[in-house]
Target: demethylphylloquinone reductase
Amino acid sequence: MECALATSASAKIALLNCRQMLWGSPKLPSVWSSSWRFGSSRRNNRSLRAVALSTTAGLGSTMEAPAANSQNVHYMWPNKKRPRVCIVGGGFGGLYTALRLESLVWPDDKKPQVVLIDQSERFVFKPMLYELLSGELEAWEIAPQFSDLLANTDVRFFKDRVKCLYPCDHLETNAPTAGTVQLESGLLIEYDWLVLATGAEAKLDLVPGAADYALPFYTLEDAHRVDKKLRELERKNFSKDSAIRVAVVGCGYGGVELAATISERLQEKGIVQAINVEKTILSNAPAGNREAALKVLASRKVQLVLGYFVWRITKGVESQTADAETETIDSSVDHSESIILELQPAERGSQGQIIRADIVLWTIGSKPLLPQLEPSDKPYDIPLNARGQAETDETLRVKGHPRIFAVGDSSTLRDKNGELLPATAQVAFQQADFAGWNLWAAINDRPLLPFRYQNLGEMMTLGRYDAAVSPSFTDGLTLEGFVGHTARKIAYLIRLPTDEHRVKVGISWLLKSTVDSVATLQTMLTKPQSES
Model:
C-alpha cells in the first residue's frame, strides 16, 4: 500500500491513502490494522500479536510495543475526544516538552493525551557524561529511567524506534488525523500534533578509519564504552613503565572537557594529546572559559596539537603518507595494537605528523537523525536543510506543516544576528518550554509565541573539582576552580527533569560532598602526625 502522502499525484489520492492507513481493514476491530506492507512488496508478512495498548494501561506507564516480528497494529488512545500529541525523541527537547505540557493548566476537555517515544529506556543528561569517567557521579543520577520520571504524569512512554512518518496536515483537507507515526515494532500511532525531537548522533564518516578505530562520546553507551576501554588499558599498563596514550580529536567544549577529565584520571600514567584544526582551542567560547581551560590543560601536561586535521586513521604499524614527518619508533613499546592518526597541516608550509594512540576519542561533528525517518522509496514533504534539520518558522512549527513542531537538533533557527543557534542543551531547554506553550496555544486557539533564544552563559567541567562558568549577565566574569565547579553542579541540579529526581540527586551529591570533606580533613590532620 502506498503511504508516502507528499508524493501522491493529488491531494485527493493522498488523503485516500492516509485514510486507508488510519482505518485499516474493515474486517478487523478498530484497534488492529490489516497486514500492510510498507514500501517494497517483497517484505515478509508478519504474524499478529495481541498487546495491551488500550485504556487499561496505567497513566505515566511504560507501554510495551509489539514484538519486532508482529503485524502492524494501531495504538488505541484512551480518549477519542481529547487532543493526541505524539513526541518523537526523549532527549532534552522531547522529554521537557512533555513535562511542560503536564505543568500547564488545561480545560477538562482540552488536556492532550501525550505519547513519548524513544529507543532508549533512559533519559540522558548529556552535559554531565564526563562525570562518569571521573567517577564523580553514578549513572542513575544523570540517566534516570523514563518510567521513573513519568511515573506521576499522564504521559505514556514507548521504548521503540520510529521507522517512518506519514503527515497529512499539509494537504489542507478535513482528514480525521494530522498524520501517523510508524514504529519499527509495527505499531502505528495516529496523532493530532507531532513534536520532532529526534536529536543527533556522532558523525564518524568524515575521515577514513574513524568509524572503525575512533570512539565517539555522545551517548550513555559511548561513555560506558570509553570507561571500559580506559579500565582495560589501566589494568594492562598497571605494572608497566609505558604510559597510556590518548588522542582526542577536536578542541571544542566536548574535546577539551574530555582531555581535562581523562588527564586528571590517568595523571602520570597517561599521555593525552588534543588535536584541533584551528590554532586555538574553544574558538567560539568566552575568553574566560578558554583561558581557564588552557591553564588546566597545561598544568596536567595535555599536549595540544593545533593547526592540524586528521587525514586518516589506521591500525598497527602501517605505511605513512609521503609528506608525513618521520617518526622515531620506541622498540620497547608494542605498536601492533596502536592506532595511527595521520595528520595534515591546515596551512601550507608545514609537515604532516604521525600520532600513535591506544585510544582515540572523536568529538567532531554530529548529524541529525531526522532524515533517517523518511521512507526509502518516496520521501515525505518535510523541508530539511543541508544538515538534515527541519526548517521551522519562529514559532517552532515546521514550514508547511501547522501540526508539527521541531525542537533541539531536529530544528533549525537563527538568532537575532542571523547566526544558526548552536546544538546545545541550553537551546533545547528553551525550545521545549516554547514548544509546550505553543502547543497549548494552538489547541486552545490562542496566538503562538515566537521563539527568542536567551544565552544564559556557558559552562564546562575541567575535572573532578574544577570547572569554568561564564554567565552572560556580567561581561568578563568567569567562575573557576571549585567555585565554578559548585556553580555548575547547582545549575544542572536545578535543570534536572523532575522535582523527585532533583531531591534524590541533591541528597546523593550532599552525602558525597560530606564524605569527601571528612576524608580531606582526616588527611590534613594525619599528615603532620606522620611527619613528626
About this structure: The chain has three domains: 73-119+160-202+367-455, 214-317+336-364, 459-519. The first helix runs from residue 11 to 23.
